[in-house]
Specification:
Low-confidence stretches: none
Structural class: mainly beta
Strand content: over 45%
Distance between the termini: 40 Å
Length: about 120
C-alpha cells in the first residue's frame, strides 16, 4: 500500500526558501499525479500545486505562481516543492497526496504533513 512522507518544512524568514519532499514507499509514485496542499490555522485546506504522473504538466495556486515550483523524480519515487520568496501567509502545514483537487480529497493517499512557518 502506498505511503507518503513529507519532509523539509521548518522555520524560515520572509523572503527565504525551503524545499519540501514527498517520498513514497509501498508503490510506484510514477503511477500518480501528485498534489501539494496546505492548511493554515483556522483555514480550510487548499490546493497549492499539482504535477502530472509524467511531470509534463503542472499547475499552481495563483498566490504562489512564480514563487513555487513543483517537480518530480520518479526514479527516486519523490515529488518536490521548491518554495522561494516565502511570505508569512505561506505559513501552514503542507501535505502531499496522490491525485489533485477533489479527487485527492475524496480518494487520495495522504502524508502526515510538514510544518512551514514563515516569520521574522
Amino acid at each position: 500500500q502506498l505511503q507518503l512522507v513529507e519532509s523539509g518544512g521548518g522555520l524560515v524568514q520572509p523572503g527565504g526558501s525551503l524545499r519540501l519532499s514527498c517520498a513514497a514507499s509501498g508503490s510506484t509514485l510514477g503511477y500518480y499525479a501528485i498534489g501539494w496542499f496546505r492548511q493554515a490555522p483556522g483555514k480550510e485546506r487548499e490546493g497549492v500545486s499539482c504535477i502530472s504522473s509524467s511531470g509534463d504538466s503542472t499547475n499552481y495556486l495563483d498566490s504562489v505562481k512564480g514563487r513555487f515550483t513543483i517537480s518530480r523524480d520518479n526514479s527516486k519515487n519523490t515529488v518536490y516543492l521548491q518554495m522561494n520568496s516565502l511570505k508569512p501567509e505561506d505559513t501552514a502545514v503542507y501535505y502531499c497526496a496522490t491525485n489533485c483537487g477533489k479527487v485527492a480529497e475524496l480518494f487520495g493517499s495522504w502524508g502526515q504533513g510538514t510544518q512551514v512557518t514563515v516569520s521574522s
